[in-house]
Design brief:
With 187 residues, the chain is α+β, with helices and mostly antiparallel strands. The protein has a single domain, classed as BirA Bifunctional Protein, domain 2, CATH 3.30.930. Helices cover 34% and strands 23% of the residues. The protein has six helices and eight strands; from the N terminus they run βαααβααββββββα. It has helices spanning 17-25, 30-33, 50-57, 77-81, 87-108, 171-186; strands at residues 3-8, 68-75, 116-121, 128-134, 136-138, 145-147, 158-162, 165-169. Strands 1-2-4-3 form a four-stranded antiparallel beta sheet, with helices on both faces. Strands 5-6 form a two-stranded antiparallel ribbon. Helix 1 runs antiparallel to helix 3 (50-57) and helix 5 packs antiparallel against helix 6. The longest helix has 22 residues, at 87-108. It starts with a strand and ends with a helix.
Length: 187
């Protein structure tokens, strides 16, 4: 499967800064990722520290873990390599894949937009991005605030049995990330 989603528990209570700090600093591979913390990004920001990322999630800079969803989106190494001729170009294009996928996720969830921050990890065989997003959103149809508790399985990549055979279904959100990946590879 070209795109794999994994929902990660953020636990409860205070300390969401630990989530963004984890994304920025934990288990780094200095050879692939260079010196210093990983820069984080959002739909319209680049090069964020984990503290700046927290201010996007909460203007006071202290989002609660219960207010957030944390998940990772992994890609096959071969797909990542097709994004450009060097690590810097590949990561820049992968950021655009994530941005396009998150816009598609907002559409699939029928919300006006999502507030999120992400960081690209190159510390494993599969390039992946950790994404933290606010659960609080505005419903596109009603214009009212609502909370995303869980993302329906049917929207995410998953396995189903068809005629006695296990089949991988990309899900509509997975298809949005795949579409972004294909578009960035074509550049």
């Amino acid at each position: 499967m070209r795109v794999v989603f994994r929902i990660i528990s953020t636990g409860g209570g205070p300390g969401a800064g630990r989530v963004t700090r984890y994304i920025s600093e934990r288990d780094r591979d200095p050879m692939r990722e260079g010196p210093g913390s990983r820069p984080l990004f959002s739909d319209d920001h680049e090069g964020l520290s984990y503290r700046a990322a927290n201010r996007i999630l909460d203007p006071d800079g202290t989002p609660e873990k219960d207010d957030l969803l944390h998940f990772s989106v992994s890609f096959e190494d071969e797909d990542f390599e097709k994004l450009g001729s060097n690590e810097k170009e590949r990561q820049a294009r992968l950021r655009e894949v994530i941005r396009e996928g998150m816009k598609g996720m907002a559409e699939e969830l029928n919300v006006t937009s999502l507030t999120w921050v992400a960081g690209i990890h190159r510390n494993t065989d599969n390039p992946h991005a950790h994404i933290v997003m606010l659960k609080s959103v505005i419903d596109r149809t009603t214009g009212k605030e609502k909370e995303i508790g869980r993302i329906r399985k049917s929207l995410l990549p998953h396995k189903e049995m068809e005629n006695g055979v296990e089949t991988i279904i990309p899900g509509r959100i997975g298809e949005r990330f795949l579409s972004g990946l294909d578009r960035q590879q074509a550049l």
